Structures are given as structure tokens and as C-alpha cells.
Amino acid sequence: MTNRTITMSYVLRDFNSKSTLEQSPQPIKFITGLGQIMPKLEEEVLALSDGDKKIITILAKDAAGEYDASAIKSIPKEEFAGIDLKEGMELFGEGENGQTVRVVVKAIGDDEVMVDFNHPFAGMDLEFDIEVIENRQANENEVKTGMPDGVVHSCGCGDHDDDHECCGGHHHDEDHECCGGNGCGCH
After folding, report:
1. From first to last of its 187 residues, what are the pLDDT tens digits of the chain?
2. Are both 32 and 98 inside the same structural domain?
3. What is the pTM of this model?
4. How many whole angstroms separate alpha carbon 43 and alpha carbon 33?
5. Is 168 exposed, middle or buried (0-12, 13-18, 19+ CB in 10 A)?
6. Domain count along the chain
7. CB atoms within 10 A of CB 143
8. The PPIase FKBP-type domain covers which part of the protein (predicted)?
9. Whose C-alpha in 14, 149, 161, 177 is 20 to 30 A from the C-alpha of 67?
10. For residue 108, what are the domain limits?
11. Rama region for 80: left / alpha / beta (φ>0; ψ in -120 to 50; rest)
């Protein structure tokens, strides 16, 4: 079902370890059918009504995908000119197809930088502890713009800074992205 505006809060955990990966400090808003969150998560949330709470498990293959060791690449260090590189830092850029690409710096050599193109949650089964605050038909303006009312940036992105990517108006820890959608560079 498309064109529903969902407002929800969530806690995202690694299903196996139960460690918290991400949490919405304030409710997030998105419009269904636009790829703003993981398709399996959207499917589950669509079935919920205002005030409903549910724990939703999404297997790695339906979440961020399986971990792909071949996604670790060596890139000439000169391509990072002007960046104070540190192991573990996330970098965002534009890929060949124009999509936002996120990499994690794995190692820094004299001439090469090893970067990991895998999503931070690749290979993880995920558990979302969801509370739906509102599930309603998107209004005409929301359908036209693809943004819920009251959200400043496209795809539900709220404030963000140079080191973090955010969607739904919340900040992320330095190693995480938004509930797995693909709007605003969230994958």
C-alpha cells in the first residue's frame, strides 16, 4: 500500500546479540511506497494502527543483505586528498550511477586506503521494537512532494551534520544509517 504517512519510534537491535544498534530519540515520519525504509519493515509497519507496538524481526537477506567480503576495496590514497582519514570513519560520496555511496575506512596505507562498501548492518538479522504513533493516508501535498508534512528535507531527512547521515529527523551514531531505506542515501 502506498501513500500512507507513518510516524513511529523504534529501537533497532542485533537480533542475535540483542545489542542496540540505533534508536530514534524522537519519532520519525515517512511515506510508504517511496523506499524510505526497508521494504520488509514497511510491510510490517503498514499493518499496524495508531498506538500499536510490535517487535519485528527481519533476516539479513531482507535487511541490509549478507556481508560481502569482495566489497572491501583498495583505493589510491590520493583520491582522499584533503580528508583527515581515520580507521573506522564513514565517508559519503557519489557512485558511478549517481547514488550516494557510503564506505567505512578499514585500513590506511602509504599509498592505498582499504574501504568497506558493505552496509554497517550487512550480515545481521535485525530486530525492530516499533511503536506506531500515527498511520494515516498521506495528504495531497505529501504525495506531491514525497515528504511528510513538517519534514524539512526530502525522504524524511531532518537535521544532519558532516559525520552522520539521518532520516526521519533523527541523528545517528557515527556508524549507522537510517532504518535501512534507500531515500536520502539510506540503503
Report:
1. 789 999 999 999 999 999 999 999 999 999 999 988 999 999 999 999 999 999 999 999 999 999 999 999 999 999 999 999 999 999 988 777 888 888 999 999 999 999 999 998 999 999 999 999 999 999 999 999 999 998 864 333 333 333 333 333 333 333 333 444 433 333 3
2. no
3. 0.72
4. 10
5. buried
6. 2
7. 16
8. 3-76
9. 161
10. 70-116
11. alpha
How far from 6 is each of 16, 28, 36, 59, 133, CA to CA, in Å? 27, 8, 11, 22, 8
Partners of residue 90 on adjacent β-strands: 104
Identify whether the C-beta of residue 33 lies closer than 8 Å to the C-beta of residue 181: no
175 DSSP 8-state letter: T
- 161 & 87 share domain: no
**Strands 90-94 vs 28-31: parallel, antiparallel or unpaired:** unpaired
